[in-house]
Design a protein that fits this description.
Elements lengths: L5 E3 L19 E7 L8 E6 L2 E5 L21 H9 L3 E7 L4 H4 L2 H4 L15 E3 L1 H13 L7 E2 L7 E3 L2 E7 L8 E6 L4 E5 L16 H9 L4 E5 L15 H11 L4 E4 L5 H13 L3 E5 L1 H13 L23 E5 L9 H6 L13 E4 L8 H13 L3 E2 L16 H11 L3 E5 L3 H13 L14
Parallel strand pairs: 4-5, 5-6, 6-7, 11-12, 12-18, 13-15, 13-16, 14-15, 16-17
Antiparallel strand pairs: 1-2, 2-3, 3-4, 8-9, 9-10, 10-11
Helix pairs in contact: 4-8, 6-7
């Protein structure tokens, strides 16, 4: 292993826990172009001989120190170099789920991967139904010719160059999230992107444990696992109770009830909508990104709104404040987002003040702490209250598993090697210590860096 890439040879380190021994002398390289240490900008390469499989293509957001920077993208210098100088080719791209840190880079990265003289990329892109729809809408917005192909979780395996891929549903904070069981000529890998083991998810669709266990039966060289919650003991709370808490708070707030969350969190939006319907409040979607997700969610049948529940933002003045629930984009305090403009009194259709309550139904992404704190202060200055609770899990639960869930995935997959991804270095170290407690030799756990 060096600073550029991790080369995994199945004959290495015979003292590690193992399911099967692979006799082939071949090797495969796993390279993180983004997604490690800073959590966002997820983009990973599986490189076998001259063929490359890409997993995810995300972006990140700048912190307060990055003046004049709008977005952060994966550094694809290595990828462009090996395509040009070593005549290697990309055989396909997989997208795990619909969060910006996993699909948001596609409009900016894909054009750079277009072969000279062509107007489209020469490799297929695959994703689950909602992930494909969200990404295709994004690409269409940028007038790009690429189309992400939809793969259902009930579909057969997808053949991509020398790789064969199974889509496995996992619970996360956006529906249709997938982990991938990747077969290669070298052996099998499990790409365990963002997940948790929620037994009572809001959409009723649990992780596909049987598929995960079947992957283990075929033998795994390495588990690449989300590690963002590895510093938390036990298990992440279920999404199931949030709807009841929304309903209780809606009854208590005398004015407008505002929920700001990740736009792609359709399950959370459904919980808020159903709670609003139970207390006879109208629902209004505010913000371009959340309106786009609402439209896609309704088209796919993932978002349910009773007739007469939704009102347009331009018609808010026709209703009393205590008749309204607003679902607003911008929970991370992004500049010019709907929530930031509302808090600063700059939104042309929405005003907040005394009696109104705002709920942050989201985690603060590392690096956004200052922006979120400024947003909270602006809301309080307006006279509204930020509805909070001393009890964790009242209005938001993490979409990422805690240490107990990471242990469960390791136990289910029984990999020979472990490689934590999608976390800070601190999370990666916590994950390594967890794996060592499970009996893994420290030399079987790779801690790598971007690039």
């Amino acid at each position: 292993m060096n600073e550029d890439k991790t080369t995994i040879n199945p004959q290495q380190n015979q003292s590690a826990p193992t399911v099967s021994q692979m006799p082939t002398p071949d090797s495969i390289s796993f390279i993180a172009l983004g997604g490690l240490e800073d959590v966002t900008r997820n983009m990973y390469l599986y490189e076998y001989k001259n063929e490359i499989l890409i997993v995810d293509c995300g972006l990140g957001f700048p912190d307060a120190s990055m003046l004049g920077v709008d977005l952060l993208l994966p550094d694809i210098t290595y990828l462009l170099d090996i395509i040009k100088t070593k005549r290697k080719k990309i055989v396909g791209m997989l997208l795990t789920h619909g969060h910006e840190d996993h699909i948001g880079g596609t409009p900016f990265i894909l054009p750079q991967l277009m072969p000279q003289g062509r107007t489209d990329v020469s490799f297929p892109i695959y994703a689950s139904p909602l992930t494909a729809a969200l990404t295709n809408a994004k690409l269409k917005e940028y007038n790009l010719p690429f189309v992400v192909k939809t793969v259902s979780f009930d579909d057969a395996d997808v053949k991509i160059g020398p790789f064969t891929v199974s889509f496995i549903r996992v619970t996360h904070s956006v529906p249709d999230s997938a982990n991938f069981f990747i077969k290669s000529p070298v052996g099998n890998f499990f790409h365990g992107s963002d997940y948790k083991m929620d037994m009572t998810p809001a959409d009723g669709k649990r992780s596909e444990y049987t598929k995960i266990n079947n992957a283990a039966r075929e033998g795994l060289i390495c588990l690449m696992s989300d590690c963002l919650g590895s510093d938390r003991k036990g298990h992440t709370p279920s999404e199931g109770k949030l709807g009841e808490n929304f309903e209780r708070a809606m009854r208590e707030i005398p004015g407008k009830f505002i929920i700001t969350t990740y736009s792609s969190n359709i399950a959370r939006l459904n919980q808020a909508i159903h709670a609003a319907e139970r207390v006879n409040r109208k629902v209004c979607f505010v913000g371009r990104s959340i309106l786009k997700v609402k439209e896609i969610g309704q088209q796919l049948g993932y978002l349910q709104i009773k007739p007469g529940t939704e009102v347009d933002v331009k018609d808010l003045s026709k209703y009393k404040s205590n008749q309204l629930v607003l679902l607003v984009a911008g929970s991370q305090g992004q500049e010019n987002s709907a929530m930031t403009r509302i808090a600063n009194g700059e939104h042309k259709d929405v005003r907040i003040g005394s009696g109104d309550g705002v709920v942050f139904s989201s985690d603060t992404i590392p690096g956004n702490e200052v922006a979120v704190e400024e947003l909270v202060n602006a809301i309080i200055k307006s006279g509204a209250v930020v509805v909070d609770s001393e009890i964790p899990g009242t209005f938001h639960v993490s979409g990422h598993g805690s240490a107990g869930e990471h242990e469960l995935l390791v136990a289910l997959t029984q990999p020979k090697f472990l490689l934590p991804i999608s976390g800070t270095y601190r999370h990666m170290v916590f994950y390594k210590k967890m794996a060592e407690r499970m009996g893994y030799d420290r030399r079987s756990i790779f801690l790598i860096e971007n690039g």
